[in-house]
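Exercise 7b. Backbone tokens:
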């Protein structure tokens, strides 16, 4: 079992943070603990993250220190949760104006641009959690050959639907926003719509496969 540390976050929350590495097994246990804590009256919200869980307390002045001790014990007793999983295909136009950093990733990986596209699209990814933006999926499973550092200077505006690589992760920008990930393609799929219920297309536990567009540039 991975070791965990617990600490206060601001005035209302406590955090359970696991030591590396990130694994699907640990993430499933985080999902399980998150669901378990939702039934506790002293907990107002649970927020699963990558290798961590944030717990917002109803009465932090009286329960925060006790919650730290309990979180440690609950983690040791936690069980995996296997949420209902859907496989969702994400069409992607790779390279060109849609993926201006494809060549950068190829050079860093010592691969051709076509090889980068084939590797990126050959994996069945798992949504570990949704964060950063509404609907932004943090995905586990990126081939280690494609791990590429973020840009030294983030872009002021990344178009919605951009597919990028940041370090050991890949993801999709649901909304136009500043961002520093290496952009390798773009999808026209809608990941966040506040008029829908739920408003986000993806959820933790879903499986994602990227499907290259026939019009893709490699």
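Sequence design result:
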């Amino acid at each position: 079992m991975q070791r965990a540390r617990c600490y206060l976050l601001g005035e209302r929350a406590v955090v359970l943070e696991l030591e590396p590495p990130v694994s699907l097994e640990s993430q499933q246990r985080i999902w399980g603990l998150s669901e378990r804590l939702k039934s506790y009256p002293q907990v107002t919200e649970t927020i699963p993250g990558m290798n961590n869980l944030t717990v917002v307390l109803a009465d932090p002045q009286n329960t925060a220190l006790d919650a730290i001790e309990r979180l440690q014990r609950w983690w040791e007793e936690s069980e995996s949760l296997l949420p209902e999983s859907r496989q969702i295909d994400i069409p992607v136009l790779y390279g060109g104006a849609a993926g201006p950093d494809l060549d950068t990733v190829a050079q860093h990986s010592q691969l051709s641009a076509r090889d980068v596209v084939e590797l990126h699209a050959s994996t069945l990814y798992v949504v570990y959690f949704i964060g950063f933006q509404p609907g932004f999926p943090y995905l586990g499973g990126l081939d280690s050959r494609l791990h590429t550092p973020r840009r030294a200077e983030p872009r002021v505006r990344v178009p919605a639907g951009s597919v990028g690589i940041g370090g050991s992760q890949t993801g999709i920008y649901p909304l136009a926003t500043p961002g520093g990930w290496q952009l390798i393609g773009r999808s026209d799929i809608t990941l966040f719509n506040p008029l829908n219920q739920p408003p986000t297309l993806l959820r933790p536990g879903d499986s994602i496969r990227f499907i290259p567009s026939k019009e893709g540039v490699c």
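Instructor comment: The mean pLDDT is 89. DSSP finds four helices and 13 strands in the chain.
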